[in-house]
Amino acid sequence: MPEPSDAAADAAEPSLEEQIAAYQREFQDLDPQVEQVVSALQRLNRRMNVAYGRQTATLGMSNAEWEVLKALVVSGAPYRMGPGELAKHLGLTPAAMTHRIDRMANEGLVTRERDENNRVRVIVELTHEGREKWLAAMRLATVFEEDLLQDLSGEERQLLGQVLTRLLRRVEEAQPDAGGRLTDLD
176 pairs with which residues across the strands? Predict the structure, then answer.
């Protein structure tokens, strides 16, 4: 039996309107405007993650590896962090971070060496190849993101960015420990 295509899988998901109507049928206290915003954000996030995953796959890396490269780049030159810092930043267990670093070191995206000042401490550093992969992923992401927002004017983009940032701050204030994966949700 053939596997369903992505289009068939997408068709199985109800439209936002159908989902909201079903929720209202089962939970009359639902505010349909709130549900539309939240559901649209969730679906957009899920679909964007799939799109980014497809892009990173064309570069021979995973979204998980992209996240490590991004964290190292954001840390600034010389693009170095300890594995514990990376794990905390990405919401991973130390063991999961070790496995990720192992793969990435084998692929030449990062190096892992002992800190000369503290032989117990390990330093993960972005390699030239890792930085080139990051740049290639950024180029692909930029094209995707520009296409995504093409129908919005500069003013609409600015307003959307401000509104989403306000929502993000509210969640961050209410859930300060929710930056990564929570152990109680794994």
Answer: none
